[in-house]
What we know:
Blueprint (H helix, E strand, L loop, with lengths): L4 H15 L10 H37 L3 H20 L2 H4 L9 E7 L4 H20 L3 E9 L5 E9 L3 H5 L4 E8 L8 E12 L14 E6 L7 H5 L3 E6 L4 E5 L5 H31 L11 E6 L5 E4 L5 E2 L2 H5 L4 H13 L10 E2 L3
Parallel strand pairs: 4-9, 11-12
Antiparallel strand pairs: 1-3, 1-5, 2-3, 4-5, 6-7, 7-8, 9-10, 10-11
Helix pairs in contact: 1-2, 2-3
Amino acid sequence: MVFDLPGLQSKTESLTARSIEPGFWEGEDAREVSRELAVTQSRLDKWREVAGEFEELGVLGEMLAEADDQELADEFYSRAHALGRRIEADKIFVLLDEEHDISPAIVTAHAGAGGLDSQDWCEMLYRMYLRWAEARDFDVRILDELRDQEAGIKSVTFEVKGDFAYGYLKGEQGVHRLVRISPFDSAKRRHTSFASIEVLPVLPDSVEVEIRPEDLKMDTFRSSGAGGQHVNMTDSAVRITHIPSGIIVSCQVERSQHMNRATAMQVLRSKLFDRALRERRERLETLQGEKRVIAWGSQIRSYTLQPFQLIKDHRSGCEAGNVNAVLDGDLDALIMAYLRFAKTGQTCGSSGAEYIEEG
């Protein structure tokens, strides 16, 4: 759809027609349609502006070919340079053009084997994504959190709201590996820790996911998180088990059992949708005779703090030397490198940019 200008025009017209239908704002999908219309209209406007500027530069070029005018030449090269910068900045729309890229994201971090070191690493990753979201003015809402009494986080689920939140974060799914001198080892030995990240889109109401009530088991328990005296004194937290798939989701941050159940069901819908997509993709790959590493459970990125400092993404091949900046939320270079790799298959090494230095 990114390069399909007639298709983009047709989609914008279709969404506009829906938005002016009688009773549109009373429908359940009004907000979704309005957001999609805003995105497609913005993309269409950007293409028209770029096309218009490109056409005007063509006219200037023809004038320069006929006359030696330094002022005209300065204008041409200045505007051409500005257009180049704009096209470079707008490449994000090429990379984030999949169906649910614009959606908010549900992110879950799980500590791997390794005890306190992995739990501390899980908390470090959680903080890293919070800082990244804050830098983009995205809203973050914690849905569920299981802290260890001694140190770190065993697991945490949070929602990130902002334009293209899922599109940006989807490439973070997988296993993240940390190598460092353990702060919990009195002998100051080097330890390797693992934590896994799961990223799901928040599905719009128009996406149908079949969930039968008889397939659900709901348990309630007392919330252990913040939320006020009433939350912590009642069994308001909810845990839902989807029996056929074995998927378990929970929420304990809302002020009522009803709200926690609604939020947990939202997470369950996203998990079941993602599961169905992965199963379909795996069936297609089996039919095609392809063997690929499934993202979940595979090591996607290594963060080495000792004996040297280096972060390496094992998919895009890109590396970052300023590990403190990355752990403080400066993820954009690594995220963009992965998105380019996912879209084109081009690694940092193949493009001649093997090393990223943030900060």
